[in-house]
Design a protein that fits this description.
This protein has three helices and two strands. Strands 1-2 form a two-stranded antiparallel sheet.
């Protein structure tokens, strides 16, 4: 049996996966949303840590970066959906 894997790697119906992406696009596609996303990027993805960072601090930072990167990935997915270029499905057999 095959299942649709969402953009985040979790199995869910394709329609539900697309709705999540479209909702995030709607949330962050306003002037305030774009400003908020830029702020989140500035304190996560664009932040640089020195060599003295602890393992725990690094893991914490990477978790934050992952979440912001997932928001960006979902927004890009929604833009592909709106432009009719979304992949039909990512399938996992098993």
């Amino acid at each position: 049996m095959s299942k649709h894997l969402g953009v985040d790697g979790f199995p869910r119906p394709q329609e539900e996966d697309q709705k999540i992406s479209l909702d995030l696009l709607a949330t962050f596609n306003t002037p305030s949303g774009k400003s908020t996303l830029q702020y989140l990027k500035s304190i996560t993805i664009e932040a640089i840590s020195g060599g003295a960072i602890s393992n725990d601090e690094l893991r914490h930072m990477e978790g934050q970066r992952y979440l912001v990167a997932m928001i960006v990935k979902r927004i890009n997915h929604a833009e592909r959906i709106k432009n009719g270029r979304a992949s039909t499905a990512i399938r996992n057999t098993g």
